[in-house]
Specification:
Elements lengths: L1 H45 L15 H39 L3 H16 L3 E8 L4 E9 L2 E3 L4 E3 L3 H9 L3 E3 L21 E9 L2 E10 L6 H89 L5 E3 L5 E4 L2 H6 L10 H4 L3 H16 L5 E8 L5 E8 L8
Antiparallel strand pairs: 1-2, 1-7, 2-3, 2-4, 5-6, 6-7, 8-9, 10-11
Helix pairs in contact: 1-2, 2-3, 2-5
Length: 402
């Protein structure tokens, strides 16, 4: 019995030992396979191939799990670098365009065209904020590879454009409002965009404008939204600088125009002053001449008055009603009356009846026969009461009697 039991035990131990050896060999093969697979995975990752399919069959494969985590991190970093590179490249494209232009209209068109191409949109528009009128003006519109001419304005707070400006934040819609105006394509028919993205252009917390994009895709990617949001500040800063430059140029032009007008006005004033000075000199000469003439007239009047006053005759003028209108001052020396005392019919009152009749007859004859002198002789009462014998000669000129 003992040999039989010993043989059985020996067989059992031998069989068990063989199974353990086989199990160790299997585990060794699996470990070598796992190491080989991880080595291949590490090689692929090292070569930059992150798209390989990795399946962990052993939960205890710490190295494989670490390699999987490393691949995911590298994929994330690769995508991050790719996104940053895409954004940086897009910024460089637009920044170069911004440096090329000094005119807002040309700049707006060039920017919107290149942005539409870069983000793969179908249409876009750029609105510039007019601070004076408080409106957003459509400066450039581009759709379906063609420039569009649209005269459009939005007040802040009105419409999606005005709402974006009021909120100073991005508006992203995947459900297009019924009243949203879109540009149709002859190729695509009346198909409306499926998504719209409106981005405010803000610099130093001040609104400079708004850019608008539409696409036939279901959504704008987060990367595109991030890119446009970062780019908006760059565009806004350039628009602000161009506005300042334009305003400065306008003020400079107005200043130059005003200076030129002042120069012209100054020249005109100088010419006017010279003309006034010449006119004043002429007036002074004319005044001197006039004063000399007045003085001559006054002297002549004085001489005439002196002659009339000292004359041996009395000169009188009558109207058609036998009323004396003038009497020479010589009447004082001859009759003793002043000229005023001879007026008002008083001269006739001092005649005798016969003298008055003779005077009336002479007056009537002068009226009937103008141009013919008539002489009469009559007696006249002087102021001192003496009587004097007077010979009077009368004649009738064109319209006056003397």
């Amino acid at each position: 019995m003992a040999p039989l039991i010993l043989a059985s035990l020996t067989y059992w131990f031998q069989h068990k030992h063989n199974e353990e050896i086989k199990q160790c060999e299997t585990e060794l093969e699996e470990r070598e396979s796992r190491i080989d697979k991880n080595a291949q995975l590490a090689k692929k990752i090292g070569e930059g191939n992150y798209d390989i399919d990795i399946k962990l069959t052993d939960k205890d494969d710490v190295l494989g799990r670490s390699l999987l985590v490393m691949r995911e991190n590298l994929l994330a970093n690769k995508k991050k670098e790719s996104d940053q590179s895409w954004i940086a490249e897009g910024k460089d494209i637009i920044s170069n365009i911004l440096r090329l232009h000094n005119n807002i209209d040309d700049l707006s068109y060039d920017v919107i065209v290149n942005l539409i191409k870069y983000i793969n949109s179908i249409q876009g528009a750029l609105y510039v904020y007019d601070e004076d009128n408080k409106v957003l003006k459509n400066i450039a519109t581009y759709a379906y590879n063609r420039k569009k001419y649209i005269n459009q304005e939005f007040k802040v707070g009105y419409g999606l454009i005005g709402q974006c400006a009021y909120e100073m934040d991005i508006i992203y819609r995947t459900e297009i409002p019924d009243d949203y105006v879109t540009i149709t394509s002859g190729i695509l028919g009346d198909q409306k965009p499926k998504s719209i993205l409106i981005v405010p252009l803000i610099s130093d917390e001040k609104l400079q404008g708004v850019i608008e994009f539409a696409t036939l895709e279901e959504v704008f990617s987060d990367l595109t939204i991030r890119y446009l949001k970062e780019l908006g500040e760059i565009i806004a800063r350039t628009l602000f600088n161009l506005k300042v430059n334009h305003r400065t140029e306008k003020l400079l032009a107005e200043s130059q125009k005003m200076t030129e007008e002042l120069r012209e006005n100054e020249e005109q004033l100088r010419q006017n002053a010279e003309e006034m000075r010449a006119t004043q000199e002429e007036l002074e000469k004319s005044n001197e001449k006039l004063e000399a003439q007045i003085q001559q007239v006054e002297n002549a009047q004085k001489r005439l008055y002196s002659l009339l006053e000292n004359a041996s005759e009395i000169i009188t003028i009558y109207d058609s009603y036998k009323k004396m209108t003038y009497c020479s001052p010589s009447v004082i020396n001859i009759l003793g009356f002043t000229p005023e005392e001879m007026m008002g019919g008083k001269d006739i009152d001092r005649l005798t009846r016969r003298g008055e009749a003779m005077f009336s007859e002479m007056f009537q004859q002068l009226l009937n026969e103008p141009g013919q002198p008539v002489s009469i002789q009559y007696t006249y009462m002087k102021k001192d009461g003496d009587k004097i014998f007077i010979e009077a000669t009368g004649r009738k000129p064109s319209k006056r009697l003397s």
